[in-house]
Structures are given as C-alpha cells and as structure tokens.
Specification:
globular, mainly alpha
Length: 429
C-alpha cells in the first residue's frame, strides 16, 4: 500500500507531465504526424505541389500543418489554469484569419484581398474584445490621431493583419516561419517574465510548445507545411502578444512590437516595393525573389541535396529574427526613439543581407579561360532568371526575365548588345 509521501510524489510527477505546455506540444506533434501518415486520404485536397513561382520544395507535401498546430493549442488551452480566459479571447480573435487560411489551403481559390480582409478583421475583433490596441506611440503628431478609439482599433487591425500576412510571406523554407515565430515568442516571453506577467508568460509558452511540436515534423525534412491557416494563426498570435505586452505594462515601450516583428515586416514591405517597381506586375503576383528563395538559389552548387539546402536556408535567415529578438529584450524599456532607431537598423541589415545574397545568386564569377565572345555573354543565371509565374488569382502569366536585378535598372545589357553587334559586323566583312 503506497504511503502518503509516495502518493504526493506521484501526483506531482503526473502534474509535471500533464502541464498545458506538454499537452500542447504532444497534441501538435501527434496531429501533424497523423496528417502526414494519412496523406493518401486527403492529399487531393491538402497537398502542396511543386508547380508555382514560389515552390522550392520536393514532391507533394500536406499544407495543413495549421490544423496540427491548432489541435495542440486547443488541447493545451483546455487544461490551462492561470490565464485561461485570456487565452480563449486570443483564440477567438484568431478564428477569422485561421478560417480564411484553411479555406485557401483546401481550395487554393481564395483571393488575396479576401484573406487580407479576414486577417484585418481578426485584428479588429481582438482589439475590440480585449481592449488592447495601439492607441499611443509616445509621438505627439501620431498620438493625436490614433488616440481616437475608432482609429486605434482600425490601426490595430491593420497591424495584426499585416504581421499575419508577413508571416505567410516568409513561410517558404522548412522551419523558417515556425522557427522565426518561436524566436519572437521567446523574446516576448522573457520580457513578460521580467514584468512578472505570468498569465501572459503561460500563454506564450503554450504557443511555443505547439509550434515546437509542428517543427519536429516540418524541420528539417519538410514533411508538412504550416499552410496559410497555420501561418496566419501564428502571425496573429505573435502580433497579438506584441500589442498586449505594452498595453498591459506602461513601462514597456509602445513601439517594442515593431522591433520584435521587424524581419517579416521588412520582407513584406520590400516585396511590395519590388513588385510595384515592375511595370504591369500586381502586388499579389508571386515570384521567387524573396530572401529565402534567393538564399536557396545561392546555395545551389554548394549543397547538392535540395531538402538540406532548403532547411539550411532557414538556419541562415534565422539570424535576422534572432538579432531583433535580442535587441527587443535589451531595449524593451527604452524610449520610442531608441526602439525605432533599432528597428531602422534591422531594416538596413535586411537590405544589406538581401543585396549580398542577390549578388551571390545573380552575379557568379565567370570561369577563366573563355573565348572573348563568350566573355561578352552575361553570367549564367540560376533557374529563377526566367520564371513563368502563374498568378492563380488572375490567370495572367508574366515573364520575370526582367527581374535579374530588381534593385536597379538592367543597363549592363546595353554595352553587351553593342559589343556583340560589332563582332557580328566584323564577321560580315
């Protein structure tokens, strides 16, 4: 017959192994594993194929990892004690974004504007229900505008919707979106712990556990993808925590959320600017000129295994969110000016990294010993040079040949054409 001490010891062990975080992790891991194992049953609806401008993976892969992530978070939330009410408010807010993303994952027919509207509506719902909003930034001209309740709620909706879509944009390599989300959540969890906000800490840990369960199936082999539903849900939660943190603690900089999410935001803004700079190209037009796509191409010839090259691209890019996370924790209690300067520095770092990877991808050194006329030819381009990008929403095909270097005009082909013409005329003599 067990003693009283033995019963207490067993109860504590059971409580340790059945914490909400463990349940969230296990539920997400098991659900993702089951989705992969049963792919032959639902693959006609859920598999992500390799056709498309942004596809760099190998073979057909389920893109409904968001269902696995949501399963873990729901199971873990059901056992949550401290902060349970707040958690279900977060979950309710994420529902429109998750639903729109899941519908796209299953049908591949939901327009971008519809999904963007759904994510913004999710942000508005979150701000309305919780009362957490971006109503001040300690900048007088801006505060006089966003201080109005209606403007604050709308601005919060736009911010959350933007981050949710930004997380979806960076979801292009194995582990990139999940790993980035994990890093950013860890930074906000540390800030919450310093503030002794254990309710928010428990919610962040619950989310991190669910993401880790997904990552064990997704990284490094890419057996399942987050999909739009998972990326939107993860982006929503990251943005919601980033807004709730300064709203719950006045001593935390109101601009700290921007610094936390500056990497996915930089990728999104630069993508918009790049596409707007190209004639007859819609902002929603997919391409293979994201930082992760270029990194994948830059590693070609150095790493033969495409799956390993895919995952290694994420490892390299994780340095950007890791830096912003460390800076966020260090500057969380600094002035808005300092935080905004740090965010600007991260944007500049992203741009420098992009330029460096673009140089490695688009301008490889020409081999020595070539004939003069061969030397006049442009350096061989990677497979992304000419991409017939199918826009699934408008059905219009575009030729991305002009995208050899989107950051400046492609003027080097003018003297090249003149040189080739002179050689051709010399042969006619």
């Amino acid at each position: 017959m067990p003693t009283r001490v033995g019963i207490i010891h067993e109860d504590r062990l059971a409580g340790m192994w059945l914490t909400p975080e463990v349940i969230s992790f296990s539920g997400s891991l098991l659900a993702c594993w089951l989705l992969v194992r049963t792919g032959q049953l639902h693959g006609h609806l859920t598999h992500d194929l390799t056709d498309g401008a942004q596809k760099i993976h190998e073979g057909a892969v389920p893109r409904i990892g968001g269902i696995g992530l949501a399963s873990g978070l729901i199971l873990g939330g059901a056992t949550l004690g401290h902060g349970a009410a707040l958690w279900w408010i977060f979950a309710l807010g994420a529902l429109p974004a998750f639903a729109a993303g899941l519908w796209e994952d299953l049908t591949k027919t939901v327009p971008v504007r519809v999904r963007l509207t759904a994510t913004i509506a999710a942000g508005v719902l979150f701000a309305e229900v919780t009362g957490y909003s971006l109503h001040h930034l300690d900048l007088w001209p801006i505060d006089s505008i966003i201080g109005l309740p209606v403007v604050a709620i709308g601005f919060t909706g736009l911010a959350i919707g933007g981050v949710a879509n930004a997380m979806n944009i960076i979801d292009g390599c194995n582990g990139l979106a999940g790993g980035t989300g994990l890093i950013l959540l860890a930074a906000m969890g540390c800030i919450s712990a310093v503030e002794h906000d254990y309710a928010l800490v428990s919610l962040i840990l619950l989310t991190m556990a669910g993401v880790m369960g997904f990552l064990l199936i997704n990284f490094p082999h890419g057996r399942i993808f987050l999909g739009d539903a998972g990326a939107y849900a993860l982006g929503f939660l990251v943005a919601a925590f980033a807004i709730a943190l300064p709203a719950r603690h006045a001593d935390v900089s109101p601009a700290i959320g921007l610094l936390v999410v500056i990497y996915p935001v930089s990728e999104t803004l630069y993508s918009v600017v790049r596409r707007l700079s190209k004639a007859r190209t819609a902002v929603s037009q997919p391409d293979r000129l994201h930082l992760h796509s270029l990194t994948f191409e830059a590693l070609k010839g150095r790493i033969d295994n495409p799956v390993f090259r895919n995952s290694l691209s994420s490892v390299f890019i994780w340095a950007l969110p890791l830096l912003s996370a460390l800076m966020s924790f260090a500057l969380a209690w600094s002035s808005v000016t300092v935080v905004l300067l740090a965010a600007a520095a991260n944007v500049l770092l992203y741009r420098l990294a992009y330029a460096q990877v673009l140089r490695l991808t688009h301008h490889p050194r020409a081999p020595r010993g070539k004939a003069f006329n061969a030397a006049l030819m442009p350096a061989p381009m990677p497979s992304l040079e000419i991409v017939a990008a199918e826009d699934s929403y408008s059905g219009r095909r575009t030729n991305a040949k002009r995208d050899r270097h989107p950051s400046r005009p492609n003027v080097r082909y003018v003297p090249l054409a003149l040189s080739k013409a002179s050689l051709w005329l010399g042969q006619l003599r």
